[in-house]
Amino acid sequence: MASPFFFVKKKDGKLRPVQDYRKLNAMTIKNCYLLLLISELIDMLKGAKFFTKLDIHWGYNNIQIKEGDE
């Protein structure tokens, strides 16, 4: 499913690119769980012996994904 893309003329005559996500949003499966608050996550880390920080910014396109799972 895709969302339609078109142009709308502005008052000054220039074109504004517009994308209508209403149908796509209607088909989107909503999260079925609540996200934890930062304070709750920090409380869960109390007493931990190890912490890990991952920087995946540069690795995003280097991670191989099994065919069919893309």
From TrEMBL:
Q: Which residues form the Reverse transcriptase domain?
A: 1-70
Pfam families on file: RVT_1 (PF00078)
Which CDD domains does the UniProt record give?
Answer: RT_LTR
Q: What is this protein called?
A: Reverse transcriptase domain-containing protein
| Species this protein is from | Bondarzewia mesenterica
